[in-house]
Each structure stands twice: as C-alpha cells, then as structure tokens.
Amino acid sequence: MKPIIISCIILLTALQLAAQENREIFFADPTIYVEGGKYYMTGTGGNHGRPGFNVLESTDLKSWAPPAGATDSVYMILNKGDAAYGTRGFWAPQILRERDTYYLAYTANEQTVLAQSKSVLGPYRQKNITPIDGSVKNIDPFIFRDDDGKYYLYHVRFNNGNYLWVAEFDLKTGKLKPETLKRCFGQTEAWEATPNYKSAPIMEGPTVVKLQGKYYLFYSANHFENIDYSVGYAVSDTPYGPWVKQRNSPIIHRSLLGENGSGHGDLFEGLDGQLYYVYHVHFDRGRVSPRRTRIVPIVKQWDAEAGLYKFSVKAPEVIVPVLK
Fold it and tell me: Where does the record locate the signal sequence feature (predicted)?
C-alpha cells in the first residue's frame, strides 16, 4: 500500500475518533431512569457548564439527545437557584417515582437533597429549600423502596473517610428517621484500598435492589482519581445488614473493562429485560476529567448452593453512549 494511502487512512481514523469523542457523553456518577419506552440519563456535570442537572433521552441506550424543547442543546431538569437547595457541587442524582410524583435525590453543597416534579423532565423544585439532614455532611443519596412500602436512604457520611450509611426515610416529609441510622460496613477488602492513590477509606455511590428476599448493595470503592476505582457488592437479609461482601468483587474494574476509574453508577433494567449498569471512567490513561459515561450488560446467575444471585459483566458488550 502506498504511503500516501496509509497516511490518509491514519488521518481518517484520527478524525473518526475525534468525532466520536466530541459526541461522547460526559456524565460522571450517572443514572438511568426507564419509563414509557424511553431511557432518561442524567449525572454529575455532562456536556454543559451549568450548575444543576440536565437530561438526555434514548430508546436504544446508544444514541442520545436532549428532549424536545431543549435550549442550546441542553435540557435542564434542575437549576441552581430555582427553588432548589444548593449553590455548588451538584453530584450523583437519582430519579424515582411514587404514584404521580417524580423525585430527584441529589447532592449539593455536600448535602443530600430531595426535590420533586409532576414530570420526569422536571423542573424539580422544593417547597422548603433545605437538605435532607443538615446536621452533618452527607452525599450520594439512593432511595430504596422495600416490598412493604417503607423507604430507606442509603448515602455517604464523612468520618475520616467516606462510609455508607442507611436510615429509614419518610418520602412525604423528605426526612430520614435519625434513630434508625446505621453504618453499613467499613473498609475490609484489598480491592477497596489499592496503593495507586493513597486516601482515607472511601466507599460510595450506593445502589440497592431486592431479589428473592435478599438485599444487594452495589457500591464503589477507592478514591475516584484512583485508576482502581471500581464496583463491588454485598448481600444482606435486611435493609440494615449485616452485609456479606461477595468474593467475586469487584465486578466492574479496569482489569475487566479496560478503562481506568470505572465506577459510581446505577443499576437498571433495560427495555429488553436485560440488566445494565451505567458508570463513568477516566477521560484517558493520563487524565481523570471530564469523565466519560459507559453502560455494561450485567449477568445475574442464581447460585443454588449459596441461595443468592452472583453478578458479573458482559465486558465485550460495553456500550459507549453518544449524542445524536
């Protein structure tokens, strides 16, 4: 092959990669809500510089676009100063629905917050502009509804590190029940504290599901700047624990998926009935931010001997979501 042709191929490949990168989605701490034949994705940051949260829509998880009515290609579902708590650090949102009301749990000013709307597309606002529990710093909320209708707030509290806590939660008042507060667990596993980035213990980004009477808590460990930031899971018979960390953790890690800093996302069931985990990765091998968004199919396999599900990922099927 002639050198000029080789050069053209290399240039074309570089241009294609650049175009792909420009179309990539840059949500950190992402979450995906599924309703009405559509996926709705939001997260920390994204392809804009506005304080708050914007959202993208998709029907296939691969191609995404702002909903109709977006301004400057951005559709904000929560804005700083629009009847919602927070001036900075808008992180780690979660969308949930109870009857005809949609809720957005999120972090701002290192506080967990709950806003609501009558539409999945917002705007999400608060009647009383306050955090859930302003007595201490707490981040990364995940609200779980149990079979009996009770709600639980899984979140992170600071105490010489980031630790996961749980408390029963009153969705109507937007407040937790402080007498029920309990720490989930400490840093105990080698994968949770690798030497590639020294930090205090960090466990964050919780997601909880209940299957066959067991509670499964998915969480991220290590500092988010650590190349070994990753996701594992623990199992319990109650929402409060005790939690048994699973030996096949982490299930999401650079050694499995090929990209550094893979973690802090959310579990969801796709329109095809497949279980997925949406997460972020480092920008590249030498740079952390802006973090890129990824989606990976999850394998859920029943272990009859242990009496619980074991989880793993379909690494060859990682989805790189892009803007249309």
Answer: 1-18
With H, G, I as helix, E, B as strand and everything else as coil, classify residue 316: helix
Give the active site residue among 57, 140, 192, 204: 204
- The answer to whether the CB of 169 falls within 8 A of the CB of 177 is yes
Enumerate domains of the chain plus CATH numbers: 3-323 (2.115.10.20)
Q: Which helix (H) or strand (E) holds 257?
A: helix 254-257
Question: Which pTM value belongs to this model?
Answer: 0.93
In this structure, what token pair is assigned to residue 314?
A: 């379909």
Q: Active site residue: 29, 133, 228, 259, which one? A: 29
What's the rounded Cα separation, in Å, for the pair 162 and 130? 22
147 is catalytic: no
Rounded CA-CA distance 182/166 in Å is: 5
C-beta of residue 132 within 8 angstroms of C-beta of residue 116: no
pLDDT at residue 182 greater than cutoff 90: yes
* DSSP structural state of residue 67: P
> Could you tell me the end-to-end alpha-carbon distance of the chain, in angstroms, rounded to an integer?
35
User: What was the pLDDT predicted at 285?
Assistant: 96
CA dihedral (173, 177, 182, 183) in degrees, to 10, reads 30
Residue 204 among the catalytic residues: yes
Using CB atoms within 10 A of its CB, is residue 220 exposed (0-12), middle (13-18) or buried (19+)?
Answer: buried
3-state DSSP assignment of residue 7 = helix
φ/ψ of 323, rounded to 5, equals -80, 140
Least confident of 1-15, 137-151, 180-194: 1-15
C-alpha 266, offset from chain centre: 4
> What amino acid occupies position 190?
A
Transcribe 145-182 into DSSP letters.
E-TTS-EEEEEEEESSSEEEEEEEEETTTTEE-GGG-E
